[in-house]
Amino acid sequence: MHAILILNPVSGVSMLASNEEEKEQYEERIVTALRREGIEAVVRYTTPEDAGRGLAQEAAEEGADIIIAAGGDGTIHAVATGLIGTKGTLGIIPVGTMNNIARSLTIPEDIDEACKIIAGGKTQRIDIGKINGQVFLEVAGVGLEAALFPAAEEIKSKGWISTLRGIFEGLSKLFAFQPTHFRIAFDERRSRTYSAIQVSVCNTPYYGAHFQFAPDAVMDDGLLDVLIYKNFSKMEYLRHAFSISQGRRAFVPKITRRKAKSLRIYTETPVEIHADGVPQEVKPASITVVPGALNVFVPEEIAAGRNVSSKGRKRTRRYTRSQSGDLFRDGELTKQEEHIEEKGPLYVK
Questions:
Q1: What is the DSSP string of 63-103?
Q2: Structure pTM?
C-alpha cells in the first residue's frame, strides 16, 4: 500500500510544541500511529509556497493509494483541491486549530482514532463547491460574512494585540455595513430578490470557530445549503453569532434556508466575496456543487450511508419542494419574497 503523508509542520497542534524536539515528537506520533495500523507513509512537508495542493497532485501522479493530510482546514483544503479529478483517496488527520471539515465528517481529533479510520478502508465520495471557478469545501459567502473574515483571522492570530485589532476591525466593518438587494437565481430558474446583509452557501454544517451555521448540510447529497440573512439589525447579528457559538439557533425566521445545485448572485452594490475565507474578485457570483468530486476515508457509519451529525444524531429533512421545483424550508418564505422577472443584473462592480 503506497501512502503519502502531507504534514503541515506549523499546524495548530504542532505550534503548541515549545521546541524542535517536541515538534519532531509530534510528527513521530502521527507516523507511529499510522504504522501501528499497518500503514507505512512517506512524509512530505507543506511550505509557504505549497500548502499541499502541488504535493497532493504529485502523490496522485506517483500512484499513491492513500494521500493523508495532517493539519487544519487550510491544509486539508489544499490537499483535497490537488486530488480533485485524480484516483487518490484522501485521509484526514485533523491537527489544526478548527478542524471543521473533519468535524463535519465525524472524524475525531484524536490522532490514533483518525488513523484507525484511514486503516479501516471505508470511503465516501463527497461534494465540493465552486464559486467563480474557485473550489470551496466549507462555505462561500457574499456580503457581510466575507467582509468579516479578515478580522476573524486577526482574532485567531497569536497575541492580545492582534486579537484586539481583529475585534475592533470586525466591529467597525459590522456597523459600517449596509443591507443591499441580492438577486438570486436558483438552479437556473427565475430569480428571487431579497434585502439582506449576507448570503452563505454551505457544503459543511460547520465553519468558522466550530460554529454550526448549517446543521442540515450534508457533504454527499449533491446539494448546497443556502442561508440568506434578511433584515438583521447589527445587534441582532451579534446576538445571533453569540447564540450559534453557544450551540443555540436564534433568529431563524430571519434566515431563509434553501437547497440548490447551483445559483447566481447579483447585488445592488459591490460587496465582498470569499471561498473558505479566501477573498475573491468582487463580481457576480456563480456558485455550483460538484457531486462526489472527492473520495475520502470516513467512519463506518458515514460510509454505510447513515447521514449523522457530529453528535451522532440522525439528520432531519425539513425541506419541501415548491411548484417551481425549488427546495425551501417550511415557513421561512415571506410574501415579500415572490418570484420576479429581471431583464438584467442589478448593479455590480
A1: T-SEEEEEESHHHHHHHHHHHTTSS-EEEEEE-SS--HHHH
A2: 0.83
Helix axes 73-83, 53-61, angle to 10 degrees: 40
The predicted-structure confidence for 225-278, as pLDDT tens digits, reads as follows: 999 999 888 888 888 878 887 777 655 678 999 999 999 999 988 899 999 989
Fold topology of 134-292+311-337: Tumour Suppressor Smad4 (2.60.200)
Q: How far apart are CA 306 and CA 297, in angstroms?
A: 15
Pairing state between β 41-45 and 3-7:
parallel
CA nearest 279: which of 131, 171, 168, 157?
131
Q: Domain 3-121 - what CATH class?
A: alpha beta
Q: 3-state SS string over 195-254? A: EEEEEEEECCCEECCCEECCCCCCCCCCCEEEEEEECCCHHHHHHHHHHHHCCCCCCHHH
The reported pLDDT for the residue numbered 317 is: 42
DSSP category for residue 47 = -
Q: How confident is the model over 108-138, as pLDDT tens digits?
A: 999 999 999 999 999 999 999 999 999 999 9
Residue ranges of domains in the chain: 3-121, 134-292+311-337
